[in-house]
Amino acid sequence: GSIPPGIANLSGLISLDLSSNSFVGSIPPQIGDLLQLQYLSLYNNNMVGEIPVEIGRNLQRLQYLDLGSNFFTDPPRDFPALPLLTHLSFFYNDLQLEFPQFISYCFNLTYLDLSLNGLTGHIPESLFQNLINLKYLNLTTNSFRGAFPGNLANLSKLTNLGLATNNLSGTIFDSWERIPELESIELYNNSFQGSIPSSVCKLKKLRRLDLRLNGLSSSIPPELGTCTGLSYLALAGNSLSGALPSTLSDLTNLSELGLSGNNLSGRLPPYLIGNWTKLTSLQLQNNRFSGGIPSEIGTLSSLRYLFLYNNEFSGTIPAEIGNLQNLWVLDLSNNQLSGEIPAEIGNLNNLIVLSLFSNNLSGQIPPQIGYLTSVRSIDLNTNQLTGQIPDSVSNLTSLTSLSVYINQLNGTLPQDLGRTSPGIINLSFSNNSFSGQLPPFLCSGFALQNFTVNVNNFSGPLPECLKNCSGLRRVRLEDNRLSGNISEAFGIHPNLVYISLSRNQFSGHLTSDWGQYSELTNIQMDHNNISGTIPPELGNLSNLNILALDSNELSGPLPQQLGYLHNLYSLSLSDNQLTGEISPDVIDGLTGLRSLDLSANHFSGNIPDSIGKIYNLQGLNLSCNSLSGSIPFQLGNLMSLQSMLDLSWNFLSGTIPPNLGSLSSLEILNLSHNNLSGAIPSVLSNMISLRAFNFSYNDLSGPIPDTDLFNRAPGNSFLGNTGLCGAAAGLPPCHVVNPSNKTKSHTRIILAAVLVPVLGIALLAMIGYLACSKRIKERRGETDSAFMFHNSETMIWDKEAKLTFGEITRATEDFDDKYIIGRGGSGCVYRAELASGQIVAVKRIIIISDSDVEIPRINQWSFENEIRALTEVRHRNIIKLYGYCSDSNSGSMYLVYEYLEKGSLRKVVYNDEEAMELSWITRIKIVKGVAHALSYLHHDCSPPIVHRDISLNNILLESDCEPRISDFGTAKLLMPNTSSSSYPTPMAGSYGYMAPELALSTKVTQKCDVYSFGVVALEIIMGRHPGDWLQNQHIQLLQEQVSVSVLVPVPLREISDPRILPPTGELAHQVQLVASIALSCTRLSPESRPDMRFVAKQLS
Question: Most CB contacts within 10 A, which of 66, 90, 615, 869?
Fold first, then answer.
């Protein structure tokens, strides 16, 4: 209820404390009649409205006024001062205007808290001139702007100062010695620059110094070591450089030290570590520290968090680390550590997370790892570990995630793995040399969701329990020797999104049950022994993007129902025994295809004209069939064709359609081994992207096109066409025939026309029969010699990219530095304005020679497929990736993007003038656009694309403020060669936007993007980074599991950007909904965050 006006009848009241109730409504003006009142607290209620002017006018004896944690708005401008007031709190309210004037004239104030409001403007000088008795001043989390208060020194009695999370800038005040009583300074999350003032080191009583998330540079001042009372020191997220001063060893009372996200370098001196014996949290991640980890680390017996990841530490992991028996999280990932994992690590019986991935660790995994009875996550991926996984791992009853991929491990897996670990969710053993059968209890608790064992030597059947894992989402078993009946090995998995069983020995038939996996986006079962027909029920998989069943023993016709797969963009059924005609009804429904491969089957009949309507098709392979008739002229409509058009080894007749010359993006054309006649159309010379072709063994005649491309082609590109002539090797020149020579020439033509077919027809028929009936087991990696020229560089271009690598080189004057518009850890970004007027952004990535770093050869095909997938991304809110070039001569890779002049969203949000033009409607539109873009990447691309680095910097704006996210999916392409330490390790996100689980693992998931989206959405609404606000929300180390359908209401007073008028009516409801959804996206537990499809639907 509300406070009754009748309270005024208590005229003798001196103290009124109504705090922590559920009062609503406004403060009754009659409260001003309590003339004797000295103490008034309405803290922590739900009251609203202005503070009645009667409080200031009448309660002149008031000494204590606490209105914190309500919904009060700004007091009237004529609100009188309270001369005896010593304590005033408006903490966590809805103040939106400038600093209330009356406060500066409450001369006896010793305590002032205005934090967590939306106050704007400058902090008034009068505050520091008049309130000289202040001991506590907290203005944190507002929108104050301007320079640091220059006359702060007037507050000589101050003990606590909070100016964090505002828009303050310039350098930090440097006369701290004039405020000798200070115990706490919090200036984090502003825009302060310059160096850390050395005068702060003269504050002998200082206990807490928080300067993180600013733009401070230079080095850490040695004088800081004189603040021997410091227990909390946070300098993270700045641009500090240099080594740690030796004087910091005097900070023996430190309990928390955070220096992450700087450019600090040098070694960790043992005497520093050895003196910080009270530390509970040591966070030095994301710097450039080098050298060994001191053994003295073992003396920090109170340590709970040790974050040293993403540095350049080398040497071995000290055995003394096993002394840290209170440790919860140990993350040494992404360094250059070598040697064995010390057995003493098994002493850490309170450890929850162990992350040692992306180092150079060798030797065996110690059996003592089984003593980590509290551990939930173990990530040892991307090292050089050998031997077997110890049986003791089976003892880890709390284990939920085990990752050891990309090592040199061998032997069999512990057969009891999973028996006593019912909560296992993620298992990754891929890219090792494991053998034997998979453990029978892997999914005994039915919690398994992600299971990857690809690229090993596993054999035998799949575990029986796998059939009952209804929560399976992602399964990768490819490149093993697994066997068994494909349909008996799996049950019903309604959540299954991705399954790859390629290159195994699975047999049996595909049953109709496979049509029930409604969430599937990817089915890859190629290179097995699967027989029978393709079940029509696969047509029910409406989300399917990739279907690869090639190199099996499938027979029968194509089911008509495959035409229902409207989202399919890759269909590969090559190297089977499929028969019948290619039905136009199937083709008509597959208009979204990018790749179609039906080669090496027994298809007959004509090529359907409707293939010419698959306008997004980039690769078409119908070779090695029994197709007849003419080449449909409609194929000339496939302007997106790029990787190949292969119709070879069929019975096609007629002429080559001239409009194939309009396929300007096509790189490979193969029409060989058919019955084609007539001339090679001269318009084929317009195919500017063509790099390889083959017209051999047809009945073509006349001159070949007179261009360098055709004239320089190998002679076997035209073999078996006796009527062709031209300048290419192996062809006769084209001569003008004189009348006197007609008879002789005619005779030679007749002889050639008769003798050559007679002598060669039997041989050619035999070759054709053998080539098309034989299994083409690795057809993608084989080409005729006619395709082997002009391979000094690799190019993958989208159809919209009407440009060449030469144009880019000329536009940037061979990548001159003056065209650089951005630099990053992986290379530079150039602005290239082409002769056509088109402007593109080009990211150049330097690759060292073969002896150092390059894309590993075994991953080249995968890498280029990733690039092709990214160029296929089409969405209104995603920046276009035009393509990729790899120049082996210069040792560089180039990613070519669409260019937008307006720039990033960050530039707009943090510019007051531009931000004030960013209306609430526009902000909601931006959030929705980003949500729909991420939903598309996560749920409509196959395989799904994880952005990895959602931040305001990576969201660009069009002129109408329509958002476009950039740099999607490319970070994971730059994976290091594990034998080299010189290659930059890709970072999974930007500081302040990274999901908290990335402090424990580099396993980037869609839920990491969801977290980053939540931060970005809140930042757009609040007009500032929501870091501290989120910290207040996340009050527990591990957030409880919360249903994704539950949204926590967020009061507008907390999240509205104070630079624009607050939203009202329906618009206010929409802003509040955005904030609530954004908050749900930032839950600490990845499992409790919604997915982006849910988010986009809610926002719509």
Answer: 90
